[in-house]
Amino acid sequence: MSSDRLFYLPLGGAGEIGMNAYVYGYGPEDQERLIVVDLGVSFPDMDSSPGVDLILPDIAWLEDRKDRIDGVFITHAHEDHIGAVALTYDRLGAPIYARPFTANIARRKMDEHGHPEDAINVVASWPDQIEAGPFSVGFVPISHSIPESAGLVIDTPAGRLVHSGDFKLDPTPIVGEPFDADVWGQIAKSGVKALVCDSTNVFSPNAGRSEVELGPNIAELFREASGMVVATTFASNVARLKTLAEAGTAAGRSICLLGRAMRRMIEAAVEEGVLKDFPSTVSPEDAKHIPRENLLLLATGSQGERRAASAQLANGKYMGIELTDGDMFLFSSKTIPGNEKSVIRIINQLSEKGVDVVDDSSGLYHVSGHANRPDLQRFHEVIDPQVIVPMHGEHRHLRAHTKLVEEGGRTGVLAVNGMMIDLTGNAPRVSGYVETGRTYLDGSVQIGALDGVVRNRIRMALNGHVMVTAILDEEDEPLGEPWCELSGLPETGRSNAALVEVLEEDLSQFLGRADAKTMRNDDAIEEALRRIVRKTSQDEIGKKPEVTVVISRLS
Amino acid sequence: MSSDRLFYLPLGGAGEIGMNAYVYGYGPEDQERLIVVDLGVSFPDMDSSPGVDLILPDIAWLEDRKDRIDGVFITHAHEDHIGAVALTYDRLGAPIYARPFTANIARRKMDEHGHPEDAINVVASWPDQIEAGPFSVGFVPISHSIPESAGLVIDTPAGRLVHSGDFKLDPTPIVGEPFDADVWGQIAKSGVKALVCDSTNVFSPNAGRSEVELGPNIAELFREASGMVVATTFASNVARLKTLAEAGTAAGRSICLLGRAMRRMIEAAVEEGVLKDFPSTVSPEDAKHIPRENLLLLATGSQGERRAASAQLANGKYMGIELTDGDMFLFSSKTIPGNEKSVIRIINQLSEKGVDVVDDSSGLYHVSGHANRPDLQRFHEVIDPQVIVPMHGEHRHLRAHTKLVEEGGRTGVLAVNGMMIDLTGNAPRVSGYVETGRTYLDGSVQIGALDGVVRNRIRMALNGHVMVTAILDEEDEPLGEPWCELSGLPETGRSNAALVEVLEEDLSQFLGRADAKTMRNDDAIEEALRRIVRKTSQDEIGKKPEVTVVISRLS
Q: What is the C-alpha to C-alpha distance for residues B281 and A348, in angstroms, rounded to an integer?
């Protein structure tokens, strides 16, 4: 047994906020049994991943060791923790464990992809534990911004680990269980080897606020509104939806849910009994017949997503409902970095309609779901572990959290994706590096982020694309003129002639003069034609386009 | 004379923060003489304008009336006010007026584009006025974040107008003239018909702070730094550069300027005498031999621009200088919405190097160059105009500023790009709408934003691109197989065969079976091949690519 080791290995989430995937291993070196905590996704953007649908962690390392995986444990149902469960099921095949609400969401995903729903195992919460190889894993309820979030207690022969999951210290979270320092204190009592801990809000200097604080503010805001009211928040923030809906009801407004994600989340929360007494709702069809001052719309799309209900309401109509002068739109949400332009676009469109927009800048209508700096310090003290390993953060978060840990007189380990941390002995150490990366879900296909597919798209977007077709006869002589098709390029340039004609003329001249040796060599012709297109384009329009050349030979 | 009218017409800047271009007209309807205030650019992004170099306002309306333009007046040398001066000179040709520092920057632009530098006229400041047709225009010094900013006094036969330019109320701006309420009060004394006013910071609730407040904070920060220090800010913020450099000198550090834009701005400011006593600097080559604790680098790229000095320092080396553990990097700047991801990328790269990053979140190291809400109210009172027309803002800013004006008991006019506001009588009114838009500088060519060029780039980036080549013989029969080239698409899909082969097989089958009538019709074949490519791709990879078909006929 003395040669067994315990390790922690992040494959995603330690270097970005998103696509969480953490591995724990225990056993003889290179034969460790493995468990996976969370399998999440990130969202693409036009800058780095145009056309991509979702980003997931590269799980090749896990796939190569699939026979050693004893279970996948999902802490909660946010997409960055659960989103890749169905997308990776074919390749990992391990049993998946989650609390009832999380399992409900996971089953819907499995079903959509044609996977067996019963691969999802519903677990009871702590003090129950699931035996998974050498690991015993308990789901301890912890407050966050979605029902039934859990921190994990992971008992191993080498000692107890705590994996915080996403959390905040909320004694009154409206929906879901409050943070319970006593329970965590009991868990910590026997000694915790390592705490692997959420870093999201390490830069927020003040103690976090409770979900319950928002109710009176929102109620007052809605009471004073004279027109229609729309509120948007994350669809999964069921507590917030309840607060918003109750404030609406108190202000004499009927509640209408807009957006599929929101209806599904409410449905799942009701099915699993975590959401009780949600006000009754009206359909969008019925809403049209209700006076606007008696209506509250709860809409998806708080991050400015183009196809979500909020964007459509801002842009025109959604399901026949149209906003107008004197209506109010509340962002009960924070804009995630990178989404500012999309959110601002919506705000400007609403402004054009004369709608008054209220955002979270006052602090009255939104609280975060993550532990702030002082809350992290308190949690460190409650768990009182030998070692703290920050996770769930970009490098800057992990580094600041590690510093915070060390300022508190504890040992912090800055571990990024792919870094295997040996936790066996008294001092944690880096015991290896695993190749990690990103996998893109692109349409229905998963491709590697470095495969070049997306790089080519970016190049076409930046430079435009020219396709050249040339036909050569049996004597290697050009048959007619070469042909160019332009895509994403200006039609005319410096010489005021059509760019396509200038290009075809230059290509034609080249083919007319090329020597016999060149004309026998497709690669040489292609390279020459490409070079001519790029040079002529640079002269004409100041750009060097991407070029594809097709040489056809009659032979 | 009674039929003469005075109007205000924004062509850019009233609906976005960027590409400012405001027109004033006076005279008989449709024969008004015109002046233009500012000709600026905006910056493209990957989401909406991939591959574009700069965005400028569509000046077609002005170009059609170029013989009626009596002058172009540039308030200050920020790119969103001056950036299009040289790019539009060919099409407008009007004389350009600016104060010496602004003119210096403008001349550099004209020179780069091969235009005559003497099209730029250097003007003295208020109380001097330039006669331009029926207008007399005076440049009144006003504090902002670049030297020699000016608000304009525009006297017309119908009364006096004030065009604020970009401004703040700074009594101690370090470089450039302080805000002088007495001068503006004198200007206002005889009555102001309309104030056209900067709206940028209408959402900032507290009074603005002076540039002078930063000096002691920055000096203390630099004094306590133990390694190399890098500070970034806008290259044009000469006052800030001076504050940073003086703080560096006081901390015993040599100053090194990194980035062409920064060196040029300092050079221009020194040439024109607006910057005095700037500490002496060392070259990057010399900087390499100075102990890191004795060095302050001032670097371009505060917005995360990929090719600027800051990004290169974060990513690796810049001119042989490399950052390391214990160095400090100060963002003496605010991140403009939309640039968050780029800035955060740099911060994370610096974090990986162990560099401590200090940003503006404490408020200690950056102040804005624009008037905040209470400052706007104060300026309204000082100018005391009949009407206030908010400019320099997105719709949300213009709307909020208009409301602020009305809350102050004045008449506000919400005028967006293309809206012609008749200011002749006592009540302003919308007298027409002019078609406006955006022009893209793309390489060396100017194209319309709606020409479809950029739309095609975006489509290729989102969907990938398939090029199909088919050759038909004299009998309209396919000669060999059709050929596909893929760009930006996965190589294999659902059937595990190469996508290109699956496509070619399907296209070949179609051509083999198509009837004679179809085979005689290029459009019909193209349409059919395109449909097949899209359908097969959807089946195989879940995406419908852009398709270009080239049919070549031997005839």
A: 45
* B500, burial (CB in 10 Å: exposed 0-12, middle 13-18, buried 19+): middle
Give the distance from residue B53's alpha carbon to the nearest chain A alpha carbon, in angstroms: 10
Question: Mind listing the domains of chain B with CATH numbers?
Answer: 5-206+368-448 (3.60.15.10), 211-358 (3.40.50.10710), 464-553 (3.10.20.580)
Return the residue of B nearest to A540 by Cα: B444
Percent of chain B with pLDDT over 90: 98
Q: Is the peptide bond before B100 cis (omega within 30 degrees of 0)?
A: no
Q: Do A541 and B357 touch (CB under 8 A)?
A: no
Q: What angle do CA B113, B117, B120 make, to 5 degrees?
A: 115
Cross-strand pairs, A16 = A393
Q: What is the pLDDT of residues B123-154, one digit of tens each?
A: 999 999 999 999 999 999 999 999 999 999 99
- HSE (CB half, 13 Å, CA atoms) of B328? 20
**Prediction pTM value:** 0.96
Name the residue among A40, A58, A46 with its Cα closest to residue A438.
Answer: A58
Closest chain A residue by Cα to residue B362: A205
- Per-residue pLDDT, averaged over B374-400, amounts to 98
Tell me how far apart the alpha carbons of residues B168 and B201 are, in angstroms, rounded to a whole number.
10
Q: Which two tokens stand for residue B110?
A: 């004209």
pLDDT tens digit sequence for B275-303? 999 999 999 999 999 999 999 999 999 99
Q: Which residues of B touch A340 (CB under 8 A)?
A: 337-338, 340
Q: Is B264 exposed, middle or buried (0-12, 13-18, 19+ CB in 10 A)?
A: middle
Q: Helix count (H) and strand count (E) of chain B?
A: 17, 29
> Closest chain B residue to A546 measured between Cα atoms?
B487
Our CA-based measurement puts residue B363 at a distance from the nearest CA of chain A, in whole angstroms, of 14
